[in-house]
Amino acid sequence: MKQPPSVLLAGAGAHGFNTYCRQVLPRLAGLGKIRLAGVVEPVAESRERARTELGLQPDQVWENGREALERAQAQIVIVATPYFAHEELCLAAAERGLALFIEKPVSDTLAGVWRIVEAVRRAGVKAAVNMSARFEEEKIRFGRLLRSGVIGRVDYVFCRMAWNHEANARYRADAPHPYLMEAGVHALDMLREYAGGRPERVFNLTWPTPGNVFEGNANAVVSMTMDNGARAVLEGSWTLRAVTHSWRNEYIRADGSEGSLLLDHRRIQILRGREESESGLAVREVWPEQVGLTSTDLLLERFVDWVEERCDQHPTDLEDNLQCMALLFAALASAERRTELSVPAYLEECREAES
Q1: Which of helix, strand or coil describes residue 212?
Q2: Are the C-beta atoms of 40 and 10 separated by less than 8 Å?
Q3: pLDDT (0 to 100) of residue 289
Q4: How far is CA 163 from CA 46, 168, 247, 301, in A?
Q5: What is the pTM of this model?
Q6: Axis crossing angle, helix 318-337 with helix 185-195, rounded to the nearest 10
Q7: What are phi and psi of 187, to 5 degrees?
Q8: Interacting residues of 326 by C-beta distance below 8 A, sequence separation 6+
Q9: Is 7 helix (H, G, I), strand (E, B) or coil?
């Protein structure tokens, strides 16, 4: 009988430990879908905590990524290190023919993303990105409703995802764009999915808030145009003093040719008509379906199935996510250059620089 694939977790810090060590990996191992090859983590305390939680032997944990790749005999590598450390590990793993499940963002620069994409293509390995927010229960339902045509042609999508993250994100205090790189990237991914098409143009208005822990721009209003003509806007912040639409409580509205679809604090409503008309605004509540697995549980299990050829595609494969990464880094460049940018042209600029 064929053994399930062996999985190496690279990165057992706060996110790696809480998401993978405590939740996702034990569940998949318990189902017999994976075997645990080990953990690589440079911080001794975090490494030992992960080893204990997963029930690993001392020779199944490593401090160094390259040593782990040589000794772990893994088929799949989960890259949950800080994003500025992704590239080296991804390139080394792809060169060894290992499948990659990568935390967002794929790298800290678009050039780094492109080098990873090229390495994956050369090696012919499978790679996907953990864009988990789009696969939360209410987001899955929202996307399905839009694709069903419930509001006709989608013309505009707006998302407000904003809260105060100073206490929990001090490790990004000196980052130039902490909100967009860590949280806003999820919103950009949702907006491009809901608007449809590929990102065409982007303008990013971003700014710092005096007197908070973030030295960089922790606030952003990003407007984008898709190649199908739809528009989308993200309003986001990590420095609010009055929080109304935090993580999992976002306000997302899609306006279409036959009405609007609203997601607010996990409640979904279909809106039609006009408030000032005699018949008034028609509001129909739509409750999220029970969809089974969600978020990282869904995406990693689907990835294992894809690697094992039990399915022929993955919803967040690296090739598709390249469009999200191009949108993210074009938005950051737009803020720096203070002008609207063409997303395809910015990606091509990066490709040419790397060729």
Answers
A1: coil
A2: yes
A3: 67
A4: 28, 11, 8, 30
A5: 0.96
A6: 110
A7: -65, -40
A8: 110, 199, 343, 344, 346, 347
A9: strand
* Structural domains of the chain, with CATH: 6-132+294-317 (3.40.50.720), 133-286+326-337 (3.30.360.10)
Burial class (CB in 10 A: 0-12, 13-18, 19+), 285: exposed
Amino acid 286: pLDDT: 87
Residue range 274-292: mean pLDDT, rounded: 75
* CA–CA dist 93, 129 (Å, integer): 15
What pLDDT, in 10s, does the model give residues 252-272? 999 999 999 999 999 999 999
Cβ neighbours of 282 (radius 10 Å): 13
For the chain, the farthest-separated pair of C-alpha atoms sits apart, in whole angstroms, at 73
- Taking only the tens place, the pLDDT of each residue in 76-110 is 999 999 999 999 999 999 999 999 999 999 999 99
Instruction: Examine the pLDDT at 354 and tell me if it is beyond 90.
Output: no
What is the token pair recorded at 113? 């993303």
Write out the two tokens for 127.
């790679």
- Give me the sign of the Cα torsion angle 137, 140, 143, 147: negative
Query: What is the CB neighbour count within 10 angstroms for residue 40?
Result: 29
Instruction: List residues bridging with 282 in a β-sheet.
Output: 272
88 burial via Cβ count (<10 Å: 0-12, 13-18, 19+): middle
251-256, strands of its sheet edge to edge: 281-286, 267-273, 259-264, 251-256, 154-162, 231-237, 219-226, 199-207, 341-342
3-class DSSP state of 306: helix
Distance of CA 351 to the CA centre of its chain: 22
Give the contacts of 339 (CB within 8 A, at least 6 positions apart): 203
Q: Are 17 and 103 spatial neighbours (Cβ–Cβ below 8 Å)?
A: no
Contact 111, 348 (CB under 8 A): no
Residue 24 neighbours by CB distance under 10 Å: 23
Strand partners, 221: 205, 235
- List the Cα angle 199/205/206 in 5-degree steps: 115
